[in-house]
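Protein in question quoted in full.
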Amino acid sequence: MWRLSEIRIRNIVSFHEATLNISQGVATLIFGRNEDNASQPCNGSGKSSLIEAISFALTGEQLRKVKSVEEIINDHADEAYVYLRLDNDFNDTTFTIERNISRNAPQSIECHKYDAAGQEIETDKTIQPTVSDYNKFILNEIGLSKDDIYNNFILCDNKYESFFDCSDKNKKEVINRFSNGIIVDESIARVQADMEPIVVRLNEVNNKVINVKGSISAIENELTQVDEKKVNAQKERESHIERLDGQIQKCREDIEAAEDKKSKGEKRLELLQQLQKQVANLEESDTALLEAYHQIKSMCEVNELGAVSEFDVLSERYKKDLIDANDLITKLKAQINAANKRVKELQKDYEGKNNLYTQHTQEQSELTEKDKALIEKFNKEVAKIDQQLDKIEDQIKVHKSRQAQLETLIARNSAMMDGIIICPKCEHKFFVGNEITVEEVRANLVNFRTEMEDNKSKVKKLNEEFDHYDDQAATKSDEIETIEKRIKSRSLDLNTEYSSLVSLSKKLDEAERSVSSLQKQQISTENELDRINGKIEVMRNRLFGEINGILEGRITNGENYISQQTSSIKFIQGQMAQYQQSKRELLEAPQTDFTASLKASLEKYQSDLQKAEKSASDIQSEYDILKKQELDFVMFKSYIARKKIDALSLIVNDFLEKIGSDIRLKLEGFTVTKTGKLRDKISVQVMRDGIDCGSYHKFSGGEKARLNLACILSLHTLTNSNCEDGKGLDFIIIDELLDKSDEMGMATYCEALNKLGQTALLITQGGVSEGYPHKLLIVKKQGISTISN
């Protein structure tokens, strides 16, 4: 089989350029993260774009519901490209597909095949004249149809329809595709075509046999009434003719009565066949169970078909339950819409306020940085002023210290001046016991006092300078305090804004929880609706099974009745023909020869009867051989179809066991009725511990997801098994079809797929264990999607 090994894409939807090598034999989970839209963090990330590229490479068609394939080109580009590499271990070959699409030019394709040595091979096949021819070649090379790919390999909501949800017609098409029932149908049609002329011949010879038998019966009746001793008497002759006229008239009346019965029987049969078609159309339609029951009940009463089982009470209850569930779903949807509207309003409000908060935070940060720089600058200036003040204080201290010294010196010199002694004789002034002179002390005192005044002047000046610098320092400190208050005020405003944002976030979370709760209620109600529909489906199948059985029996009886009337008419016609012949012979033949004539006619008719019966036996043998062939083909179709149904059930149940489910599937259909007709309606039953649990629709979303996965894998396996050797695809892509399962369920699916060695890409929005090794994250940022491991 072909393995998908590598995909390269350029300008596909939201991808600009990406390459992905597919991990073989494991289930790879693909998650998404949309960083461009906080309201839908998983959706719109580009997960499905990757699958779009794979689908486009294989089929040349887009998965999305868009008008043309050109719409998958990235909005900012004029062309796109996809490359796909498939490897095949069966014959060690590689198959590559490259597609280019453009808004301004036709699509172009290149295909190449390489052997194990890397040499290109089969160039006569890989080069095709048109895009359509390339598409056919690719599908032929992998051995699948587009329907096979979309139903069993690339599964997404746009293309995939579950086996359990599809119509009975589609179920039969699936089974016939796997069982080759179409080929058997062709064989049955050929046998039926061969039978048509034989049926005509058989009817003709059977009519002849009945006619001859009627003639023999009439002759034998005549012979019993003929008295040979009186046969020549004229009176008896006239009486005999009169009796023959009476028998001929009676035959005409009996034929007319039989034809009337046959005509009525044919009309009745035609009516029954029309009713059978009406029932078939009604069964295929979407008519509700109760309405269908009333139509069928009325049909039975009007056409005297007998009574069908009473379904109305249960149908009424189911109808009421259905209406209640639908009303609740409608109510929940309205509540969800209102809640979603509220969420969007809150999200918009939150995003606006969050943007403002982010802006204000940035502004606060920038302003705070500026203010801190200003504070730092002012602090440096204050520090310089403080240094200057310290220097002035030191200078003042020095001057004050000197003042103290000067005051001491002045006091000391003043005291000395107070102790001057004047000589009475010469009036010389001097100090006792001190060599210093008065003039020197007086000069010192003047100097000291002068220096003292000068010092005081300097100290005053220094104090004034100190006050000036101190005022500057105080001003700077005030400015710093003002800035710090401003920072604090902005911080308080930002905290208030943040508190408002947190409160709004809580409201948003509460609104989202409300939406989630309502959605859970909706899912629960939809599951209940599915269960009711499942019960209705079971009842519907029983109702139509019953009426089909009644009609089939009445049609068979009607066909037998018409056949009996036809045989009776032929028989009576034979009698009448013989009575008419006897009358002619009686009128024309000599009187003595009438009995002999009757006996001669009897011998002739008996001979004719033997020949007719021999011919009828031979033709019947031919018919029986073909009829047996037809029945054998019908039985064979039933057999192979039931074998595939059994195989599908077996594989589904095997997968169900491997994914940890305790439910099992039972499929029935393609049964042959007692009349040899094939009833091909397929019924689906879900079992638990061998007990019928009802229809598929009654189960929860998670259980239905398990059944769907098991069925997907089964049909995937059967599709590949129907391919030629070396063909088929050894991978499967499932786009969000399993998201109704919980995290444990998804982990179980991955584990089962890994044990099977199944290469799978599972796109999901759900969670899975952080430790799961095979994961891909597709991130969309600024409109561009990228693949991250």
